[in-house]
Amino acid sequence: MAEITAALVKELREITGAGMMACKKALTETAGDMDKAVEYLREQGLAGAEKKAGRIAAEGVSFTKISDDGKTGVVVEVNAETDFVAKNEKFQNFVKEVAAQALKTSATDIDSFLQEKWDLDPSKTVSEQLSATISVIGENMNIRRFTKITEENGFVQDYIHSGGRIGVLLQVKSTVVNDAIKDMAKNLAMQIAALNPKYITRAEVDQEYLKNEKEILLAAAKNEKPNAPEKVLLGMVEGRLNKELQEVCLVDQVYVRAEDGKQKVGQYLESVAKAQNAEISLVRFVRYETGEGLEKKNEDFAAEVAAQIK
């Protein structure tokens, strides 16, 4: 058996483009035989994955999965380079497999998650399975993030909007769990997807933010009405701050499906709780919008074709 040196690992990586750890494993499995190591990586679908790693992966989907008992839910975001691949069946199936694993994982961060054993093939890590899928699909991909929520005294509701453009989890604590309350939770998860609140109630809003916002609004009010009494200025500030909070706090938002167009989410929640004789509280929500904060690839189709021709 040839000694597995750093130089040997480097050479294999340059030949295949596979990751450092994958190359080391391949050489170990093949007793240092370079040709067999290349074959091993090809069989594992790992050769070529690293060469795609520099490409921007800002498309993709956010996907949710709920446990059979409804008490645990997970939302994951998996990215690809193009919307075309994001709609590909192989990509979609891989995302579902990632979500299924994330639902059971004990990992608390993405790095730990990527290093754990892949449930469907324990000979690989999640990261290695990702590399294998990249090689099959032919585009760079990235398991960007996941969040898992558990509620023992109630349930977790999910919602996926527009084929995975937005994924939402809503943690609901309730003394009663039935279809009416689950329908209410689904409606509110849809509301979160549509109107993108930042908080559930005003109590969650950062006090430093409120203080800073009041100072800004007060300065603006003084510029608008320099001779107005302080009481008038403070009234302007409170009115404008209240309007802002109605937009960012879920329970203060107008319920999008309200028949009168006026009912607030908090009022809708209270009406359902009363009708079902239940005590209900919204504990937490998570909203993933696919690609948010990522640099987007900005090429038109004509330029892409021209680039390929060259």
From TrEMBL:
Instruction: Give me the Gene Ontology terms describing cellular component.
Output: cytoplasm
A GO MF term: translation elongation factor activity
**Gene3D superfamilies reported in the protein's UniProt record:** 1.10.286.20, DNA helicase RuvA subunit, C-terminal domain, Elongation factor Ts, dimerisation domain
Q: Does the entry feature the keyword NAD, yes or no?
A: no
Instruction: Report domain Translation elongation factor EFTs/EF1B dimerisation positions.
Output: 73-292
Cite the residue spans of the region called Involved in Mg(2+) ion dislocation from EF-Tu.
Answer: 82-85
The lineage's top-level taxon is Bacteria
Q: Which InterPro entries match?
A: EF-Ts_dimer_sf, Transl_elong_EFTs/EF1B, Transl_elong_EFTs/EF1B_dimer, Transl_elong_Ts_CS, UBA-like_sf
Please name one Pfam family that this protein belongs to: EF_TS
Keywords in alphabetical order, please: Cytoplasm, Elongation factor, Protein biosynthesis
**Any idea where this protein resides?**
Cytoplasm
Q: Which family does it belong to?
A: Belongs to the EF-Ts family.
Task: Give the NCBIfam families listed for this entry.
Answer: tsf
What this chain does, per the entry, is described as: Associates with the EF-Tu.GDP complex and induces the exchange of GDP to GTP. It remains bound to the aminoacyl-tRNA.EF-Tu.GTP complex up to the GTP hydrolysis stage on the ribosome.
The entry's protein name is Elongation factor Ts
Traced from the root, the source organism's taxonomic lineage reads: Bacteria, Bacillati, Bacillota, Clostridia, Lachnospirales
**Gene transcribed to yield this protein:** tsf
